[in-house]
Amino acid sequence: MAHQNADPALGPALRQFDVALGDFARARRTDPKASSLGLLERTRMLMTLPGGFDALYRRVRSLESAGIFGSSDWAQPAILQPALAKHSLREAGAVTTIVEAISELRMLAVTRGDYFHPGISAEQARYFLTQVMALNLDLLSGQLTEADRERPKQLGMIVQELYRYLISHLGYESLLDSLVAEVWRLLDQGPVQVDSICEMIGQIAKCLYDPKIETNKNVAATRLVNALFAPTPGSAEDPGLQVYEQRLTEMDDLTLASEATCFARSMHDTGLASPYHAVMLRFLRNNDQDDLIPTILGLTMTGLDDLYCYTELVHALIDEAIYPETCQAVYGLTMMLERGSLFTPSVAQALWRQIQLKLSAETANTLREAFGDARPPRVFLLAGVINLLGQPLGVGQGNNPTCQSAIGLSVWAANEADYLLQVLTWAARDNEVLSRFEGENVSSRDLEPGLVKETPVDVDPVSLILIPHLDRIYGEMWRRCENRDDDAHRWINPEFYGWWVSHGFRVVADIYTGEVHDYEGFIRHFYASYHPFYNGHLPVIHAQPAGIAVTDSAARFVGRHAINILRVGLSPRNEMRVYFFNPNNDSGQDWGQGITCSTRGHGEFRGEASLPIAEFTSRLYAFHYDTLELGDLSAVPDEEVARIMELGYTSWAASPETSPD
Questions:
Q1: 174: which residues sit within 8 A by CB, 6+ positions away?
Q2: What is the pLDDT of residue 151?
Q3: Which of these, 226, 194, 459, lies nearest to 327 by C-alpha position?
Q4: Residue 19: is its pLDDT beyond 90?
Q5: d(C-alpha 537, C-alpha 342), whole Å
Q6: For an engineered disulfide with 52, which of 22, 46, 71, 89 has Cβ 3.0 to 4.6 Å away?
Q7: Buried b (16+ CB within 10 A) or exposed e, 184-208
Q8: Cβ distance 491 to 438 under 8 Å?
């Protein structure tokens, strides 16, 4: 292995480190909780010296054997999460950062075959490292951010040098491949918020076109970069929006048609719209070229029918909402038309009202703080409406504990868009949302905050305005049910979401003790309600909210979470799967025991997640069902029930004495 150029100070520092390592190993043999702080400080000092990472690389096996990871998650490398590793490296204290750096050196040794580790394979270690590095591409530019520079004890410089060390042995190509794959995985889920994805594509572009970075031709990466920065021949070298608009004025009809076709092809390929796309769409509207709008949107028969029936409305939406700053609304508009959303007359009327809506001062300020002032706040809100109606399964809860409200937005956007637009109007204009619970009016105006105490973050414009109101209403409904003898979701969900939520309800855990009871009956009821083989081949007519017990990749219970069951059916491989909406922004989660949610490849539509029905049921803790359409409970195979119970009892439903470490 190539070594870093050593510093004269390395020798003395290394001798001190070896002494500290020996002392620590002896101390841990007699006291498993012996302090590691002295050794970690010696490690930190080595990392500041040229040659220090080489020296630590050669000693990483000894560090782990001595017990540097203790009983923490670092001791189980297979369950480590790249996103958490980024936080540990960039934002945590010195101890956490140094331990994470040691762990990543260990991963490098495993990847290169210099350290056989019983807890993780070389392939897993490489995947983990490339994922973490992809999330920290900015460190490879050589310029530290102010936040990195201000970190104490040279931690910012240490992390940057660690990444240079790792990339010198892994190469840029694997890093780029990992980042590109992650972007495509996220795009497969059809998110309405794509700012972070566009930022990642910007990082990919830097890697592809930086002359100092050697990368092979990467077709998938080029597709992503071109989708944003060069989607057509007229924008091939990313000339800038003003230059491109001038070029449009010089194009003949045939060239304009070709540009429009290229825009549509790129957008439908990736699910991303470019700022250049918005420029051309507005150009067509301003230059009496409306006949090219179906082409630039790439509409099929349904979309064309919707457009031609509501031409004036569509043109108004383009004029009022689509700008380079809101360019993703081009895709939202296309999907909205393709869904036939405007064929419901009340939706069309509600959109006309939305176009003319006067926002309250509070709403305008909230939107301005989140999205800037490049356009008026009403533009960002209208664009958000278009995106949500076009991709109801693309809404996410952001970094907020608001899964219930996010499900509401998704359900209403898909099934009752006129109701969604009504509550949004109340919230945006009147700072109030009205609802009813068991015949009594509920207003969000004077209610205490629910789970959301501050302005929601990392959400789309509609969620930004509506979530605080919906969260307060949901919390008030909960307060009115908290003294009842069953899980409050039984009564809240049909009132909160709509009449289509079934009134039958099963919950497997006692609401007071958390103890699992009648697990077998719970499973049989779910199968007899949802599995086509045992419910008389009835499909899921209306999506139904359900509660799952989320577990981590080690099958340890994390918490309860709301999802929406969309459909149950055979996959292309004839496997019975549950297809569901997960509002947590990333539906491809690893829940341990080999249970990994899929977002593509098993018959999913964009925005859906899926699992085999047995695996899904093993994480289910509450669901609604139609009591008048219940199948034969006894027909559910005993071995299937036993398998599900085993998966549940050895993960989230385990007793404290038997729960996985």
A1: 126, 130
A2: 83
A3: 194
A4: yes
A5: 32
A6: 46
A7: bebbbbbbbbbeebbebbebbbebb
A8: yes
Contact criterion met (CB below 8 Å) for 85 and 162:
no
- Name the burial class of residue 421, with classes exposed (0-12), middle (13-18) and buried (19+) by CB atoms within 10 angstroms of its CB: buried
With beta carbons less than 8 A apart as the criterion, state whether 401 and 559 touch. no
Q: What tokens does 555 get?
A: 């099958």
pLDDT one-digit tens code per residue, 329-378: 999 999 999 999 999 889 999 999 999 999 999 999 999 999 999 999 99
What's the CA gap between 313 and 306, in Å, rounded?
10
pLDDT above 90 coverage of the chain, percent: 67
Convert the pLDDT of each residue in 429-467 to its tens digit: 999 999 999 999 999 998 887 777 677 777 899 999 999
- Condensed to tens digits (0 to 9), the pLDDT of residues 596-621 reads 999 999 999 999 999 999 999 999 99
Report the distance separating Cα 272 and Cα 246, nearest Å.
23
503 is written with which tokens?
Answer: 């009134």
388 within 8 A of 460, measured Cβ to Cβ: yes
The token pair at 5 is: 């150029």
The closest of 508, 500, 596 to 549, measured between CA atoms, is: 508
User: How far apart are alpha carbons 551 and 615 in whole angstroms?
Assistant: 12
Upper half-sphere CA count for residue 563 (Cβ side, 13 Å): 30
546 Cβ neighbours under 8 A, 6+ residues apart:
562, 563, 564, 565, 580, 620, 622, 623, 624
Q: Degrees (nearest 5) of the Cα angle 76, 80, 86?
A: 140
| Global model pTM greater than 0.85 | no
pLDDT at residue number 80: 86
Q: How far is CA 21 from CA 42, 63, 426, in A?
A: 9, 7, 64
Contact 355, 373 (CB under 8 A): no
Matching residue, tokens 């080999």: 594
Torsion of CA 24, 29, 32, 35, to 10 degrees: -20
Here the tokens at position 322 are 């689509």
Question: CA separation (Å) from 273 to 182, 205, 325, 329, 333?
Answer: 19, 16, 11, 8, 11
